[in-house]
Amino acid sequence: MIYLDHEKLDQFFKSVAGGFATPPREVLLFFVMLAVILSFLIIFYLVQRRGMHRKLSRRSAERYAELIDQHKLSDAEVRLIEGLSEYLPAEKQKYLLLTNQHLFNGCAGKLQANEPVSESTLASTRLKLGFRVEQPEEIKQYQRRNYYRRKTHLSVFVTPLHTGGETYRSTLLDLGGGGASLGNPQSLFKAGDLLELSFSSGASDFRLPAEVVRISRNASVLHVQFRSIAESARDRIIGSLYRITDL
């Protein structure tokens, strides 16, 4: 049989309990130290985050400037991009407008809904950035549509879009809702060149972006397709053809 010494047992429990008893001053000091450590960690995190944000903003600005220079955007086109940037989601960087077609089109739609936008500037910017409204399959279908096309003898001013170089005067040989044929000024242009055509037809004025799809007659004639223009502009072209009196 086991006998317990109650006196020694009481002393044991008292010593254990005494080991857990901590003076209030030490408890307060512990929480103060804990608060200091947590404050330091929070401040360190905020400083690091601010530094990363500044670094990201600087890189974003550098990338934006590089893309503007790379695509040779005009002052009007840069102003358009700045306007589009007002409609960017908060987490998106401005340079993404120059690389992401979906983002560009989304912001363009919002901008057009709130203020007048130059159709020509919007279309030329899309072309310079390599954005296309139509996919190749859609273009083939588009070319098969029976748009009314008419022979003309209209004066037209031709400006290369990418270089923003000299403007040349030429003559439209035929015109339709999908494109046109015109004289090749000094045989300068070739297939794949992006141009802006400025002309008047049936009392309507047009400034349209177009791509040279082929040349003929020893490079003296350009055959162009209108790119990234609104259907309303296409309808105006077709409507103007019935009012031309230059034949």
Structure characterization notes:
The chain is an alpha+beta fold and 247 residues long. Among the domains are: 61 residues, no CATH class; 106 residues, predicted glycosyltransferase like domains (Thrombin, subunit H, Beta Barrel), CATH 2.40.10.220. The protein contains 7 helices and 6 strands. The protein has a 6-stranded antiparallel β-barrel. The longest helix is centred in the first third of the chain and has 47 residues. The relative contact order is 0.09. About 6% of the residues have low confidence.
Sheet/helix structural class = alpha+beta
Given this structure, which CATH class of the domain at 136-241 is correct?
Mainly Beta
Examine the coordinates and then state which fold CATH places here, giving the name of the CATH topology of the domain at 136-241. Answer: Thrombin, subunit H
Total helical segments: 7
Shape: rod-shaped
The radius of gyration computed from the alpha-carbon positions, rounded to a whole number of angstroms, is: 35 Å
Strands of the biggest beta sheet: in what spatial order? 1-2-3-6-5-4
List the secondary-structure elements in sequence, H or E: HHHHHHEEEEEEH
CATH homologous superfamily placement of the domain at 136-241: predicted glycosyltransferase like domains
Share in helix? 40-55%
Stretches where pLDDT falls below 50 for ≥5 residues? 133-146
Overall CATH architecture of the domain at 136-241 = Beta Barrel
Rounded average pLDDT? 79
What characterizes the major β-sheet?
A: 6 strands, antiparallel, barrel
Report the count of strand segments: 6
Q: How much of the residues is beta strand, in percent?
A: 15-25%
